[in-house]
TrEMBL record:
<comment type="function">
    <text>Ubiquitin-protein ligase that probably functions as an E3 ligase in conjunction with specific E1 and E2 ligases. May also function as an E4 ligase mediating the assembly of polyubiquitin chains on substrates ubiquitinated by another E3 ubiquitin ligase. Mediates 'Lys-48'-linked polyubiquitination of substrates.</text>
</comment>
<dbReference type="GO" id="GO:0000151">
    <property type="term" value="C:ubiquitin ligase complex"/>
</dbReference>
<dbReference type="Pfam" id="PF10408">
    <property type="entry name" value="Ufd2P_core"/>
</dbReference>
<comment type="pathway">
    <text>Protein modification; protein ubiquitination.</text>
</comment>
<comment type="similarity">
    <text>Belongs to the ubiquitin conjugation factor E4 family.</text>
</comment>
<keyword id="KW-0833">Ubl conjugation pathway</keyword>
<dbReference type="GO" id="GO:0006511">
    <property type="term" value="P:ubiquitin-dependent protein catabolic process"/>
</dbReference>
<dbReference type="Pfam" id="PF04564">
    <property type="entry name" value="U-box"/>
</dbReference>
<keyword id="KW-0963">Cytoplasm</keyword>
<keyword id="KW-0007">Acetylation</keyword>
<dbReference type="InterPro" id="IPR019474">
    <property type="entry name" value="Ub_conjug_fac_E4_core"/>
</dbReference>
<feature type="region of interest" description="Disordered">
    <location>
        <begin position="27"/>
        <end position="64"/>
    </location>
</feature>
<feature type="compositionally biased region" description="Acidic residues">
    <location>
        <begin position="55"/>
        <end position="64"/>
    </location>
</feature>
<dbReference type="InterPro" id="IPR003613">
    <property type="entry name" value="Ubox_domain"/>
</dbReference>
<dbReference type="InterPro" id="IPR013083">
    <property type="entry name" value="Znf_RING/FYVE/PHD"/>
</dbReference>
<dbReference type="GO" id="GO:0005737">
    <property type="term" value="C:cytoplasm"/>
</dbReference>
<feature type="domain" description="U-box">
    <location>
        <begin position="953"/>
        <end position="1027"/>
    </location>
</feature>
Length: 1035
C-alpha cells in the first residue's frame, strides 16, 4: 500500500476543491470537518440550480486564484458534478484511480475501499487526477500491464481496516478474471446510474469486452500470463452459474469474430481447447471436477462458433491410425473409464483394490457407485454428440466424418491376431474404454427410434452399406460418413441381376444405426471375450491357490497376489460393461434391429410393420443382401453376454424377447435369408440365452427370475416353426468347414441339446419336433420309384430334403452326455429317421463303440480318480444307450444292421452289457428286454454269416469297390466313371461332397443308376439261391 503521507498535496491544485464554497471550507473538510451533504451521496445532485451557483460565485473568486482558475475550467456546476460521478463510477468499475490525495478528503459513499493507483499515468496527466471517458482506455491499458497491481493499492476512504476481499478484487493480477469482474461491476452500474450516466456505464461495460478481445488477440504483450488458461479457468469457475459468464463470453466471441486480422477465432480458441485437453486426461471417472469440465464441454458444443472449432480441432493428424483418434480431445474424454488406463497395470488403479479382503456386499456397493458415475458420464457424452449434430451442417459433417474415419481406422480391432499380439494392438488402435463409451453415447442417440414397432425403423436404408468410395463433397451432400462397408460380408450375396437403387441422400437414422452397430462390433465383442477368458482364468487360479494354501510355502502368497490383480481387472471390466442404463439401451437397439431385419426378410418396404407369418414367401430383390453380418453378430453376442453376466436384464422386456424369437425363427433355419451356417448356428446359442434356465441352481444361490422368459417362450405363436428352424440348422452344421472338425461342430450343437430337451417337455414344441418322421415317408416314396418320374428340380429337392433330415442322426462324432441323452428321449417316439438305411449303420457304430469302451474289454482305460471332475457319467451313458436300443429294437431293419458293425459288435459285447445293467441296478424289465434284443440281433448275425458264405464267390465287378460287399443298387459316378453301391456313396456324401476316386465335386443328384449291372447282379443272385436250394436237400 502506498504510504498515506503521500496523500498530502496542495488542496488548491485539486479540481474538486471547487465543489466547496471557499478554499477554507475545503481545508476544513481536509482537516476532518463534515463534508457537504452532496458528497455523501453516490451521485452528486446538481438540482440546486443557478441560484446556489451564483450565491457561491463571489466566495470562490475571492479566494485562491488557482482554485478559481480550476473552477472556471468547468462550464458549470452541473458539469462538475457529472465529472465527479463519472470518476467515481470508473473507480467502482475498474478499481483504479489517478487520485492519491488524503482519503479523508473524499466522500465515503460511492467510492470503492481500495483502488490501484496508476502512478506513471498520473505523472503524465499534468495535474489531472480524475478519470473520464477520454482517458479511461489508456488507464485500463496501463492497469492491465502492471505485473504486480497489488503493490499499487491505496486506501480510497478514511477507513483503513483490513479488507482482504477488497484487496483481492482491486489487486487481481490476471487480465481475464479482472476484466470479467469489471464487466460484472459495469453491468451493476448500468442498473443503478441515473439516465444521464447510463451511456457512460454502457461504454465502460463495452470497454471490458473490447479489452478482453485485445488481450486474447495479443497474448504476447501480457508477459508471465497465460490468458487462454485464464479464460478456461473463468469458464470452469462459472460452470455453476454459467449464465453469468456466458453473456460476457458471447460478447467477447462476437468481438473476436469481427476482428480476425491479427489472429483468427480458431487460433484463439485452439489454445483453450489444448489446455482443456491436457487437464482432462488426468481425471478419473469418479472425480467430481471431471463433470465440471464436461459441463464446460457441453457449453462449447452449444456455442455454434466454438462447436465448429471444436470439431475441427479433434481431426487427427494421421487419420489412418486408429490410436490417433483416442489422443484427440474428444478421444481423451471417451477414454475415461473404470477400466485400467494401461492394460495389465493395476498399480495406480482406483477401483476394486484388494477384492479378496472385501465382502461381496462391499464390492456390490462399489459397483453400484461406479454405475451411477458411468450413467452421469454417458448422459454428458450423449448430450455432447447431440449438441454437435444439431449445429450447422458443416459442424455435423465434420463430426460424422470423424466418427466414420475413426471406425475405419480401428477396423483391425476385430482381427484374430489383435488378441494374440496385445503389444502391437495397443500401439495401433483406440482402447476398449474409448469404444465402450462411444457406443454408449451412440446408443442413447438411437433411443428415439429404438422401439420394435416404430415406423421410423422402416426408413432405414441398407443400400448405404453398398456405396463404394465417395468424394468428400458426395459424403457431405448424401449424408454418408461410414467407410469400408462395401467390403463387409452381408447376410446373403447380392444376386447377379440385382443392382442397388441408391437414394439422393440418407436419413440420420440410417447413419446413426450403422455407426452404432459398427461401434458395438468393434468394442463390445472384445470386452465380452475378455470377460469370458478372465472368468475361466479366475476359476483355475482360485483352485490352484487353494491347493497351494493346503501345501504351504511362498507359492500361495504369490498366487494370492496374482488372483487379486486379475480379480481387480475382472471386477472393473464387469462394472464398465454392466451399467444398467447402457444395457437397457442396447437391449432396445438389438430388439429393434431384430424387428427391422424381420421386416427386411419379409420384403416389407411400406411405412407400417407387417405381421410375421409362415410359411415365408420367397425372397425377391431383398435388401438383406446389403445388411452386414455384424448386425446379426452384435445381436447374438449381446444376448449371450446378458445370459452370462447380466441375466436379470432379460426379464425387463417381454416384447424384446418376442422380437428376438421372431428373428431366430426366420433366420436360423433359412439359408435364403442368412447364408452363413456358422452365423445361423450362433443363433442357437442366442436361443438358449433367451430361454428360461433349465440347469439346477446350487443351494444358497438365488433363484433367477424367469417369469417373462417362460411366458414368452411357452406362448410363442410360431413355436412349430422355431423347432423346425432349430432342426434345420442342426443338420446344416454338418456341411460347415472340414468334415473332421469335430470340436467346432460339437460347440455349435452344444446349446441345441438343452433346447431340444426343453422343447420336448412342452407340447407345442414336442409335436413340431416329431415332424422328423417325414423321413420315413420320403424313403418309402423313393424306394417305390415314385421319384423317378419327377422333374430334375423336384428330384433334387427331394434328395436334398432326405439328406438334410437324415443328417440329423449323424451323432458318431459327438461324444457327449447330451448327445446320448437327447437320442434317448427322441427315439421314444421318433424312429424312422434313426433306422433309415443310410443312417442306421452310423448310429449303431457310435452306440457299439461307446458300449465297447463302457462295458467291454477297454472299459478299464476310462477309469479316473474322479468321474465328476470330467463330467463323465458312465452308468447314465450305458443306461441311455440301452434305452435307445430298446426304442429302436422293434425295427427289423435296425436289428439286421447291428451285426454289420464289424468294428465293435460281438455277441459277447451285448452279454457284457446285460451283466453291467444288473450291476448298476437297472429295472428288471430293461435287463430282460435288452437280453431278448441281444438274442434277436444274434440271430440276424448268424443269418448274415450264412449269406456271406453264399456270396463269397461273387464276381469282382459285382462288389462295391469301397466296402467290398455285394452291390444291390449300383450307381455310376459321373466324373470318375466308377460304379459303387448307392448306400455307400450316400454315406460318403453326407460328410464329404466329392467323388472319393478323384476328389471332384459330387452331389447325389449327379449319380446315375447302372441298370445293366443291377440286372446282372439280380440274375446272379436268383441263380445262386436256386443252386443252394438244390444243393440243400442232398447236403
Amino acid at each position: 500500500m502506498t504510504d498515506q503521507g503521500n496523500n498530502n498535496q496542495n488542496i488548491s491544485r485539486n479540481p474538486f476543491a471547487a465543489l466547496f464554497g471557499s478554499l477554507a471550507d475545503a481545508k476544513q473538510f481536509a482537516s476532518g470537518q463534515k463534508p457537504p451533504s452532496h458528497h455523501e451521496m453516490p451521485y452528486s445532485d446538481d438540482s440546486e440550480g443557478s441560484q446556489s451557483e451564483s450565491e457561491n460565485s463571489d466566495s470562490i473568486e475571492d479566494n485562491d486564484d488557482s482554485v478559481a482558475e480550476i473552477s472556471r475550467s468547468f462550464l458549470s456546476r452541473q458539469e462538475l458534478c457529472e465529472q465527479l460521478n463519472i470518476n467515481h463510477m470508473i473507480q467502482r468499475i475498474f478499481l483504479i484511480t489517478l487520485d492519491n490525495s488524503d482519503p479523508s478528503l473524499r466522500g465515503g459513499n460511492g467510492i470503492p475501499p481500495r483502488c490501484v493507483f496508476l502512478e506513471e499515468m498520473a505523472a503524465e496527466m499534468d495535474g489531472q487526477d480524475w478519470l473520464d471517458m477520454d482517458n479511461i482506455e489508456q488507464a485500463l491499458f496501463n492497469r492491465l500491464l502492471l505485473l504486480e497491481p497489488g503493490k499499487h493499492l491505496i486506501y480510497m476512504t478514511s477507513c483503513n481496516a483490513v479488507n482482504l476481499s477488497a484487496d483481492r478484487d482491486a489487486g487481481e493480477k490476471c487480465a481475464i478474471p479482472f476484466l470479467y469482474a469489471c464487466f460484472q461491476r459495469a453491468k451493476e452500474e448500468v442498473t443503478k446510474v441515473p439516465e444521464k450516466l447510463l451511456s457512460y456505464a454502457v461504454r465502460c461495460k463495452n470497454l471490458t469486452v473490447s479489452n478482453t478481445r485485445t488481450v486474447l488477440l495479443t497474448p504476447e504483450i501480457y508477459v508471465s500470463q497465460n490468458v487462454y488458461e485464464q479464460l478456461l479457468d473463468l469458464l470452469l469457475e462459472g460452470v455453476g452459474r454459467l449464465d453469468e459468464v456466458v453473456e460476457f463470453v458471447e460478447e467477447v466471441i462476437a468481438g473476436l469474430l469481427a476482428d480476425q486480422e491479427v489472429r483468427t477465432f480458431k487460433e484463439v480458441i485452439g489454445p483453450v481447447l489444448d489446455i482443456f485437453h491436457s487437464r482432462v486426461k488426468d481425471l478419473d471417472l469418479c472425480h467430481l471436477l471431471l463433470f465440471s469440465y464436461l459441463d464446460l464441454l457441453l457449453y462449447f458444443s452449444q456455442q455454434k462458433d466454438i462447436a465448429k472449432v471444436l470439431v475441427e480441432h479433434i481431426q487427427p493428424k494421421d487419420p489412418d491410425n486408429g490410436l490417433q483418434y483416442q489422443k484427440t480431445l474428444l478421444g481423451t474424454v471417451l477414454n475415461i473409464s473404470c477400466l485400467l488406463k494401461t492394460p495389465g497395470v493395476v498399480e495406480g488403479h482406483s477401483f476394486f483394490l484388494n477384492p479378496s479382503r472385501s465382502s461381496p456386499q462391499e464390492m456390490k456397493v462399489q459397483e453400484s457407485n461406479i454405475h451411477q458415475f458411468i450413467g452421469q458420464f454417458h448422459d454428458k457424452l450423449h448430450q455432447l454428440l447431440k449438441n454437435l449434430l444439431q449445429q450447422s451442417g458443416e459442424t455435423r459433417h465434420l463430426l460424422l466424418s470423424w466418427l466414420g474415419s475413426c471406425l475405419q481406422a480401428n477396423a483391425g480391432r476385430t482381427k484374430i491376431w489383435a488378441n494374440q499380439m496385445p503389444e502391437i494392438f495397443f500401439q495401433m488402435y483406440a482402447s476398449d474404454a474409448f469404444f465402450l463409451n462411444l457406443g454408449a453415447a451412440l446408443l442413447k442417440l438411437c433411443q428415439p427410434f429404438c422401439r420394435p414397432r416404430s415406423p421410423k425403423l422402416l426408413t432405414f436404408n441398407p443400400t448405404y452399406c453398398a456405396l463404394k468410395e465417395l468424394s468428400e463433397e458426395e459424403r457431405r451432400n448424401r449424408n454418408v460418413h461410414a467407410r469400408g462397408l462395401d467390403k463387409e460380408t452381408c447376410l446373403i450375396p447380392i444376386p447377379p441381376q440385382q443392382s442397388p437403387e441408391f437414394p439422393q441422400s440418407y436419413s440420420l437414422l440410417t447413419e446413426n444405426l450403422i455407426l452404432t452397430q459398427m461401434t458395438l462390433h468393434l468394442g463390445f465383442h472384445r470386452l465380452h471375450e475378455q470377460m469370458v477368458k478372465m472368468n475361466q482364468s479366475l476359476h483355475r487360479l482360485q483352485g490352484t491357490w487353494r491347493e497351494a494354501q493346503l501345501a504351504g510355502g511362498p507359492a500361495a502368497e504369490q498366487l494370492r497376489e496374482q488372483f487379486e490383480r486379475l480379480m481387480t481387472v475382472y471386477l472393473s471390466t464387469k462394472a464398465a460393461v454392466t451399467q444398467p442404463g447402457m444395457l437397457q439401451n442396447c437391449l432396445n437397439l438389438q430388439a429393434s434391429s431384430a424387428a427391422l431385419l424381420v421386416q427386411l426378410g419379409l420384403n416389407n418396404q411400406g411405412p407400417e410393420h407387417v405381421q410375421l407369418s409362415f410359411p415365408l414367401a420367397p425372397l425377391q430383390s431383398s435388401l438383406l443382401c446389403y445388411v452386414p453380418e455384424f448386425f446379426a453378430e452384435n445381436l447374438g453376442d449381446f444376448f449371450v453376454f446378458l445370459r452370462r453376466f447380466a441375466d436379470e436384464v432379460l426379464e425387463s422386456s417381454a416384447e424384446s424377447l418376442e422380437q428376438v424369437l421372431n428373428f431366430i425363427t426366420m433366420f436360423m433355419g433359412n439359408v435364403d435369408r442368412m447364408k452363413n451356417p456358422h452365423l445361423r448356428a450362433k443363433l442357437a446359442e442366442v436361443l438358449e440365452a433367451v430361454m428360461p434356465h433349465m440347469e439346477a441352481v446350487s443351494i444358497g444361490t438365488a433363484q433367477p427370475i424367469m417369469f417373462q422368459r417362460q411366458r414368452v417362450f411357452c406362448s410363442y405363436r410360431h413355436a412349430p416353426y422355431l423347432a423346425e428352424a432349430l432342426i434345420a440348422v442342426f443338420v446344416d452344421i454338418e456341411f460347415t468347414g472340414d468334415p473332421h472338425q469335430f470340436e467346432q461342430k460339437f460347440n455349435y450343437r452344444r446349446p441345441m441339446y438343452p433346447i431340444l430337451k426343453y422343447m420336448w417337455g412342452k407340447e407345442s414344441y414336442r409335436e413340431s419336433v416329431k415332424y422328423l418322421t417325414k423321413i420315413k415317408l420320403l424313403q418309402l416314396e423313393k424306394d417305390q420309384g415314385e421319384w423317378e418320374g419327377l422333374a430334375p428340380d423336384a428330384h433334387r429337392e427331394k434328395e436334398s430334403s432326405l439328406q438334410m433330415l437324415g443328417q440329423l442322426a449323424r451323432f458318431h462324432n459327438i461324444m457327449s452326455n447330451e448327445t446320448i441323452g437327447t437320442l434317448a428321449f427322441l427315439t421314444s417316439e421318433i424312429k424312422g429317421i434313426f433306422v433309415h438305411p443310410f443312417m442306421a449303420e452310423r448310429i449303431i457304430s457310435m452306440l457299439n463303440h461307446f458300449l465297447q469302451h463302457l462295458v467291454g474289454p477297454k472299459m478299464g482305460a476310462l477309469k479316473v480318480k474322479d468321474f465328476s471332475e470330467f463330467d463323465f457319467k458312465p452308468e447314465q451313458l450305458v443306461s441311455d444307450i440301452c434305452t435307445i436300443y430298446l426304442h429302436l429294437g422293434d425295427e427289423q431293419n435296425f436289428c439286421a444292421t447291428v451285426p454289420k458293425d464289424g468294428r465293435s459288435y460281438s455277441p459277447t459285447l451285448f452279454s457284457q452289457t446285460v451283466r453291467v445293467l444288473k450291476k448298476i441296478n437297472k429295472p428288471g424289465d430293461m435287463i430282460v428286454g435288452f437280453g431278448l434284443l441281444a438274442d434277436k440281433i444274434k440271430s440276424h448275425a448268424d443269418q448274415q454269416l450264412q449269406d456271406e458264405e453264399t456270396y463269397a464267390d461273387a464276381p469282382d465287378n459285382f462288389l462295391d469297390p469301397i466296402m467290398s460287399t455285394l452291390m444291390l443298387d449300383p450307381v455310376l459316378l459321373p466324373s470318375s466313371n466308377v460304379t459303387v453301391d448307392r448306400s455307400t456313396i450316400a454315406r460318403h456324401l453326407l460328410s464329404d461332397q466329392t467323388d472319393p476316386f478323384n476328389r471332384s465335386p459330387l452331389t447325389m443328384d449327379q449319380i446315375r443308376p447302372n441298370e445293366e449291372l443291377k440286372q446282372k447282379i439280380l440274375q446272379w443272385l436268383a441263380q445262386h439261391k436256386q443252386e443252394r436250394l438244390q444243393i440243400g436237400p442232398s447236403g
